[in-house]
């Protein structure tokens, strides 16, 4: 019932910034755990960031901690990923994901298997 659509990807130089958006439709995701994942060519999908339904707790992969910020505006049914200090290793297709409650531990947030709904992805390319 939930559709997720990512936007905001593109080409950026190393050291630059991008802000990805995830628009949810079909139903409200205000009670959903939401996350961002990415997949680079030849690599497995990996966890990037996640946020609790209220937005009070966030989780980040070590590789992006301190550079990326996940946030949400539940009134707008939107989730964001602010990406700063980008490097070529950040190049990937970025996916927005959502999981309805209940969520009991960080395992549900940081594993792709813990999510029920996925967007189509948006390409982020970081040039040297």
Helices and strands in order:
Layout: E1 3-7, E2 10-13, E3 18-25, E4 33-39, E5 46-51, E6 58-60, E7 68-73, E8 78-83, E9 92-99, H1 106-110, E10 117-118, E11 122-127
Question: What descriptive keywords fit this protein?
Answer:
128 residues, mainly beta, 7-stranded mixed sheet, 4-stranded antiparallel sheet, 1 helix, globular
Could you give a quick summary of the protein structure above?
With 128 residues, the protein is mainly beta. It has one helix at residues 106-110, and strands at 3-7, 10-13, 18-25, 33-39, 46-51, 58-60, 68-73, 78-83, 92-99, 117-118, 122-127. Strand 4 (33-39) and strand 5 form a beta hairpin.
In words, what does this structure look like?
- This protein is mainly β and 128 residues long.
- It has one helix and eleven strands.
- β5 and β6 (58-60) form a beta hairpin.
- It starts with a strand and ends with a strand.
- 31% of the residues are buried.
The structure class reads mainly beta
Number of β-strand runs: 11
Calculate the terminal CA-CA distance, rounded to whole Å: 40 Å
How many DSSP H or I helices?
Answer: 1
Task: Assess the beta-strand content as a share of residues.
Answer: over 45%
Helix content: under 10%
Q: Provide the gyration radius in Å.
A: 13 Å
The low-confidence runs, each spanning 5 or more residues with pLDDT under 50, are: none
Secondary-structure element series: EEEEEEEEEHEE
Summed over residues and divided by their number, the pLDDT gives a mean of 96
The major sheet is characterized as: 7 strands, mixed
Global outline: globular
């Amino acid at each position: 019932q939930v559709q997720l659509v990512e936007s905001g990807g593109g080409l950026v130089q190393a050291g630059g910034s991008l802000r990805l958006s995830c628009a949810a439709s079909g139903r409200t995701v205000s009670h959903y755990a939401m996350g961002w994942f990415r997949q680079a060519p030849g690599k497995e999908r990996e966890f990037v960031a996640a946020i609790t339904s209220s937005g009070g707790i966030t989780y980040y992969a070590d590789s992006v901690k301190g550079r990326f910020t996940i946030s949400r505006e539940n009134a707008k049914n939107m989730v964001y990923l602010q990406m700063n200090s980008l490097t070529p290793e950040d190049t990937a297709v970025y996916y927005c994901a959502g999981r309805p409650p209940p969520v009991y531990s960080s395992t549900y947030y940081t594993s792709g298997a813990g999510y029920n709904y996925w967007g189509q992805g948006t390409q982020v390319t970081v040039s040297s």
